[in-house]
Write a structure and sequence with these properties.
Blueprint lengths: L2 E5 L2 E4 L4 E8 L7 E7 L6 E6 L6 E3 L7 E6 L4 E6 L8 E8 L15 E2 L3 E6 L1
Parallel strand pairs: 2-11
Antiparallel strand pairs: 1-3, 3-8, 4-5, 4-9, 5-6, 7-8, 9-10, 9-11
Length: about 130
């Protein structure tokens, strides 16, 4: 079992940047594919980005492609989400998630993930 703790959220103006971190503990982090999801008030949780256990493959939602970058440091058991050119529509609670299946299928729905963090709020002001 793995425990996930997100940090780095906050309030930023349109066009600004934030870097989210998700620290993992309790299991071999390098065995998990990791992802970021987000959930805005009144909306379903939506996929943002995914990075495979080796770190060699990434996948992004169209809405963030070219602005966000997911990365991981297996030695530190941490996954990151660098968010640039932020827009008000990026406002949401951001969650990291772990997928233990080691499938190469790109899982973009929440039910494809076994473990979740508690979330960190990102607010982008216009």
């Amino acid at each position: 079992q793995v425990q996930l703790v997100e940090s780095g959220g906050g309030l930023v103006q349109t066009g600004g940047s934030l870097r989210l971190s998700c620290a993992a503990s309790g299991a071999t982090f390098s065995r998990y594919t990791m992802a970021w999801f987000r959930q805005a008030p009144g909306k379903e949780r939506e996929f943002v980005a995914r990075i495979y256990w080796s770190g060699l493959g990434t996948y992004y939602a169209d809405s963030v492609k070219g602005r966000f970058a997911i990365s991981r440091d297996n030695a530190k058991a941490t996954v990151y989400l660098q968010m640039n050119s932020l827009k008000p529509e990026d406002t949401a609670v951001y969650y990291c998630a772990a997928d233990s299946s080691r499938t190469m299928v790109v899982r973009t729905t929440p039910r494809g993930y076994d473990y979740w963090g508690q979330g960190t709020q990102v607010t982008v002001s216009s």
